[in-house]
């Protein structure tokens, strides 16, 4: 395969992954009652993609369609693209991503699945006695804590593990990035953040005057500011509605926003930027959201996963549990996310001011423009 063709396939894979990320975020955000959201579509997508490698029939068709990969016959391309992505991540000290497969004691992972898991997803397989659910949950949770610098704890409860649990797949991702242009703590002070068009509350607002990639997409009703991290090429995009009450209208547009195109249109502009400090922890079982997107068969008794374990017993996914954490302060961003899939048997006058002082969407992008984390802040804390 020619290098240019490989590059094209990889870029298409990243765009497909971003499209899935935005659709999933939109589905989750619509149901969020807290006002603040953080998810790692990278984590969820990696976990589901690994499961999809063992799927067949209509289950595989659904998973590949919702993940935006297209036809199931692209399975090998997807695996190779993940292998390329994981290899790139190994060179980035700001992020740690890891996959793990826990298999019911006495069962073996099929060699073909194990090969893909190891070579493309950098995954390990380990037998675990799910019948002793407390001990099994402790082993899984300890592994997650280690891989996320102790930011994600108790991702799985003993109550979701039992003798019918055939396999648990986990993806953990941890990001720690320092701003290329850090904010001075001396200039962080309380400012109003508008929770609605008429109600505000004071929160700690950072500010910095420098050149940031920026553009106001007036025809679309929002502005974009890019805050770069140093050394790794990653960045945080802030998508700020031009109207205080514009978050819903912005989220409606997200599925048709091409992040690659948006970032290419940003121009370095000297601005005085005010942006809030915030910390968000978020957890949910995403079964309902994935079902709503069209990936419901894998949770049913009709699920088809013949390529996972050396067993004639039928398998289905009983849970996809996701927990994520993000903290943004003057020095940079710390973020962690983990996904567990439980598979069961069965200009001129000086710089303009940009105030991120009302609900907004943020996207943490890798240097390859892959969505690591995405969320919204409606009520900073």
From TrEMBL:
Lineage top rank: taxon: Eukaryota
Annotated SUPFAM superfamilies: Serpins
Record carries keyword Mitochondrion: no
PROSITE patterns assigned to the protein according to its UniProt record, in alphabetical order: SERPIN (PS00284)
Keyword Ubl conjugation on entry: no
Serpin domain residues: 22-380
Coiled-coil region(s): none
CDD domains linked to this entry: serpin42Da-like
Transmembrane segments annotated in the record for this chain: none
GO molecular function: serine-type endopeptidase inhibitor activity
Keywords: Protease inhibitor, Serine protease inhibitor
One GO cellular component, as annotated: extracellular space
Name of the protein in question: Serpin domain-containing protein
Family: Belongs to the serpin family.
PANTHER family associated with the record: GH10112P-RELATED, SERINE PROTEASE INHIBITOR, SERPIN
